[in-house]
Each structure stands twice: as structure tokens, then as C-alpha cells.
Amino acid sequence: MLLPLTAARAADELERLMALLAAHPGGTVRFVERRHMAMLDAPLVSRGEMSYRAPDWLERRTLSPRPERLLLDKDTLTLERDQRRMSMPVSQRPEVEAFVASIRSTLQGDRAALERHYRVALQGQPEKRWTLTLEPLQARLRGIVTQIVISGVGVAVDRIDYSQSDGDRTEMRLEPVGKP
């Protein structure tokens, strides 16, 4: 169980976590994602791999139930599915930019970028089990997602959960597989 930290200690611990993450070059993880949607009786489960290379390259390859590739390279987000490809600059869509920041800025250890888009709260200790809770500052993003919870141990993120404003939620579990 993670206990809440005092404000000053939480700020110090957050700074330490961000420094640890910023120093990490990246890696590859397997993921299992469960999307719990009100319109479905059972969660929609997808599996695949995610790779991150510091400072700004993130790829998500969904292998099942349907192959898909999502690539974030600097400011360009590219989706490949069904032999089609669509790209867009992230900076032109503020809500997409904020959503992307939740993962990429955490992996980069970029506290300032996180705090531009979210109220950030940390429980736990960086070298041990920690949980980062992100609550959107922008009304437009709050209309989509109410909370993002990212958990891990040291530099290893092992869980990402999204709570959507419509009551749906997504749970992603991550397991390391090596370096990209």
C-alpha cells in the first residue's frame, strides 16, 4: 500500500522520479490492454509491444486482435492500420498533445511538460513502487479523460490506467522484453 506524502516531500520525490526517468534511454515492453466499455459485456483485450527511445520516439505495435502501429516521432503521430497510413502534427491538436504528454513526458522525466497539461500527484518512492496520478487541466481534455494513473518501480513503468469522462476505462499492463 502506498501512503500519501507531505507536499514538500512529494515535490522532492517527484523531482527524483523525473530525474530517474530522464536518465533512462528507453526499452521495449509487452502490453496487455483491457478496455472496459459500457456498450460491451466484456472488456476488449489487445496485446502487443511498445518501444520508447529517449527523448521523443514512442511506438505501439498492436498484434491482436487486429494489427496496428501507432508511432510518435517528435511532433508527428502516425497511425498504420489495414494497409492505410495517416499522419498528423501533434502540436496542431491541443487535446492530442496533452494526451500524448501523459506518456511521453513521463518517460522523458519532463515534469514541466506534465504540469502544463495535468495536476500531478505522486505516491510512493521512485526507487520502489510509485504511482503518478494525472488529472487534466484543460476542459477539452477533461471531456475525454478524467484521470490517468501511471505506476512503476524505478524506471520501469508497469501499469497505465485511463478513466474516461463517459465512465469507460482502459487498463494497460506492461512487462519488459529488452531494449529496442
TrEMBL record:
SUPFAM superfamilies: Prokaryotic lipoproteins and lipoprotein localization factors. The keyword Hydrolase does not apply. Keywords: Lipoprotein, Signal. Pfam families: LolA_3. This is Outer membrane lipoprotein carrier protein LolA. It comes from Hydrogenophaga borbori. The lineage of its organism: Bacteria, Pseudomonadati, Pseudomonadota, Betaproteobacteria, Burkholderiales.
